[in-house]
Amino acid sequence: MFVALVMAASLLAVEENGISLSVDVEPETVDPARSVFVTVTLTSPHDIKATPPDLRDWVKGFSLVEDFAEKPYEKDGRTVQVVNWRLLPEPCAEEYKIKPFAVSASPSMLSSRADEGRYSFYTGPGRFGQPPPLPPVTGGMEVRVDRDPPPIEDLAFEIAAALLACVALVAALFFGVRHIARRVKEHRMSPIERAWVELDRLLKKGLPGRGRYKDFYVELTMVVRRYVQRKYGIRAPHMTTEEFLRECGASEGKVGDTASLRRFLESADMVKFAGVEATPEMADEATDSARGYLKGDSAEVAK
Questions:
Q1: Count of alpha carbons within 13 angstroms of residue 108, beta-carbon side
Q2: Yes or no: is domain 9-127 CATH 2.60.40?
Q3: Distance from the Cα of residue 258 to its chain's centroid
Q4: What is the pLDDT of residues 14-38, one digit of tens each?
Q5: Is the pLDDT of residue 7 over 60?
Q6: Dihedral class, residue 89 (left if φ above 0, else alpha if ψ from -120 to 50, else beta)
Q7: Which of 57-61, 103-107, 281-285 has the lowest mean pLDDT?
Q8: What is the pTM of this model?
Q9: Please, what's the b/e burial string for 221-259 (b: 16 or more CB within 10 A of its CB; e: otherwise)?
Q10: Closest by Cα among 126, 117, 286 to 214
């Protein structure tokens, strides 16, 4: 059973000829460091066939990462269709919005309005809240006009500050070199070894323990998708779930157990898009499912 997702704000809401459409977003204000989740809900009379819009051509300032269409259902004699999208804000975009788009509909063949033919109506634009501007730089340049030597207290403070700056610089260089060395080491690993390292790094973040289930599921699926990309050459991270699974099916069976992969990805989509409230037990099950796929696929390839 699909659970309706409660979004932070409604971006668009239109109704015409008995057809209603709403576009809800989370969050309402764009943060370039976070994904934006969009839910399109289209409600129409049972004898009218309406098509939800494909937003990939109508968003500005975003790139599409994933989409997930829920199974249509009947409510109060009307058909409800829900499509979820995950968008990635483009840094420094001039504007973040959904451009005006058309909603198409036509009576079904059994409808008393079958002779009316196909028709459509247009929505207005939906604009997201812009990221807050960076605070302006204030104050002028400090210029020391006196030529007298500084007091000994000031000199000692400046020496201590310089030493601390040197220590901070050395520490930054150390950790920077260490990070680069780790990345180089990971780059030389096999795809399955890199997947285990990325999974371990994700689990150490403790996202479920902080209530960040949606972020956890996004990163968990990316671990599996990146493994598939490195192992089989499929550009998995930037495909929607259906596109990715379709590509796996066209690879002549070389991707391994696509059935378990489908179950894992579709289960994760229910939390990322369909509003299913995750629990620590569900997060553990998703982790076990990812581990199971990685182990099974690597064992299959090793045969």
A1: 10
A2: yes
A3: 22
A4: 888 788 888 888 888 888 888 888 8
A5: no
A6: beta
A7: 103-107
A8: 0.49
A9: bbbbbbbbbbbbebebeebbbbebbebbeeeeeebbebe
A10: 286
